[in-house]
Amino acid sequence: KQEVTQIPAALSVPEGENLVLNCSFTDSAIYNLQWFRQDPGKGLTSLLLIQSSQREQTSGRLNASLDKSSGRSTLYIAASQPGDSATYLCAVRSGAGSYQLTFGKGTKLSVIP
Amino acid sequence: DAGITQSPRHKVTETGTPVTLRCHQTENHRYMYWYRQDPGHGLRLIHYSYGVKDTDKGEVSDGYSVSRSKTEDFLLTLESATSSQTSVYFCAISESTWAATYEQYFGPGTRLTVT
Fold first, then answer.
1. Contact A110/A85 with Cβ under 8 angstroms?
2. What's the confidence (pLDDT) of residue A94?
3. Does the N-terminal peptide bond of residue A113 adopt cis geometry, omega within 30 degrees of 0?
C-alpha cells in the first residue's frame, strides 16, 4: 500500500527566504505526483504536476523535483512571501490503472513578515 | 479556477438521517471523485466515476453511495449518517488528454457535521 510522508509537519520562515518542502513515498512505481496548496477553510489548489518520466516542473517561484528511484519529491519556493502561508500537500497516483491519489498529511508553512 | 461547485457548503444533520451532497462541474471532465478530509488522516478517496453511470469504490467507501446520471453532476449519499462521517468532503475532477496528465482539480468543499 502506497504511503506518502511529508516532513516537517510545520515550518516557519522569515519573508524573503528560499525554502524546500519534502515529500517521500514508499512505492516508486508511480504514474505522477501532484503538489497542492490549501488555505484554511478552503479547497485544494493544484500547483504543479510531475509525470513519472519528468525530473522537475517549474511555475513562477515554485519548482518541484521528482526522484522516483529514491521515492522523493521536493517543492522549492523562492523568495517566500506572507501570501505563501498555507498548507502544502503532496499526492501520488500509483500506476496508470489507478485513479486514486494518495495524499501526505501536509506541511503547514508560515512566512513571517 | 476549474468550474466546480459543491452544495451545500455546510450542513448539520442528525445521526440516522440520509444526506446527499452534490458536485457540479462545468469543465466537461470525464473523471470525478469524492474525498473526505479528517485531521490525522489527510485526504482519502471515497468513490470515483470514470463516466456517466460508471463508478467504483475508493479507500473508504463503507457507508457511502454515489450516482452519476449526467457528465456534470456527481452525487454522494450517506444512507444513514453516523458521527464518524463528520468531515469535510471534497469533490475533484480530472481529464485524460493527449499527454494523459489526469491532473486533479478540487472543489471548495462541504463541511458536514453529524450530531
1. yes
2. 82
3. no
Q: What is the pLDDT of residues A81-100, one digit of tens each?
A: 999 999 999 999 986 566 77
Question: Which of B1, B31, B90 is facing A99, going by the closest CB pair?
Answer: B31
SS3 A72: strand
Give the residue, B40 or B12, on which the prediction is more confident: B12
Burial A45-70 (b: 16+ CB within 10 A, else e): bbbbbbbbeeeebeeeebbbbbebee
Q: Which residues contact B46 (CB under 8 A, 6 or more apart)?
A: B34, B35, B36, B58, B59, B60, B61, B64, B66, B76, B89
Report the chain B residue with the minimal C-alpha distance to residue A93. Answer: B102
Higher pLDDT: A97 or B38? It is B38
- Which residue of A4, A57, A101 is the best one to mutate when testing the B interface, meaning the one whose CB has the most B CBs within 10 A? A101
Averaged pLDDT score across all residues of chain A: 93
